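Standup notes, structure subgroup. Blocker cleared on the adenosine-5'-triphosphate input:
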Amino acid sequence: MRLEIDNLVVSLRSDHMLGRGRTVHAVKGVSFAIGTGEAVGLVGESGSGKSTIARAIMGVVPPTTGEIRFLQEGRASGLPKQRRAKLAQMIFQDAAASLNPRLKVGSALNQIIAVHHPRLSARERETMGLGLLRRVALDEMIFDRFPRELSGGQAQRVAIARALIPEPFLLVCDEPVSALDVSVQAGILRLLDDLRRNSGMALLMISHDLAAVRALCDRIVVLKEGEIVEAGPANAICSSPTHAYTKALLDAVAQI
Ligand SMILES: Nc1ncnc2c1ncn2[C@@H]1O[C@H](COP(=O)(O)OP(=O)(O)OP(=O)(O)O)[C@@H](O)[C@H]1O
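Run returned:
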């Protein structure tokens, strides 16, 4: 399986009070690809277009021009809703906010398991839910907790467990650790890395933090004002950046 982003342009109508109705060129002709089991980092300062690219991949915003293709053995993959869930899932910075506050973790997982595995019995769904918790290294007790009773790291692990249910080709991670304590960050990054290595799930790791991206990714794409300024193997980008902007991002990491 392969995701190809080809000359993607996304222009948005500004909803900001001061510039309402103005067109914002959030993404201006971006191309890159991700194959099965690959981890690609998308870095750039605030407003460089990272989240807009993620939303376009997830089908939430349409490309203004250009294409986003999921290819299976060279052929376009169909996009009925169920199928789309198997192409890409997404996790967010604020994991707790992405969980339904009224549902216990077990019920939330159960609902999504029922959608994607309709033939399973209630018992089998529960077994699968508990198995998912183990896969993200959470205690079974978490099954009976509400999102408000979870720590930030636990909530992110539940969000990851939920994303795994359709067994997606790609997990889009939008700043998945930037709201967490440094000690908790490493555990989540290790979990994402293990999932990629063990299940072959591809990762698109979106971050303004080059250090987190470097730890996880084979390749890095550096964005500035909606355009790619540099792209290549993670080690090469981090050890000898060619673009002044990438150097500035690296210097920012060194100062932390
Ligand atoms: N819904 C929207 N309407 C209008 N403009 C938008 C909208 N969403 C984003 N933008 C603009 O598009 C540009 C890219 O924003 P985007 O959120 O993709 O950047 P980002 O790199 O993800 O930033 P951050 O790291 O702060 O999340 C910015 O100028 C932003 O103001």
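Discussed briefly. The longest strand covers residues 23-35.
Next: hand off to the docking folks.
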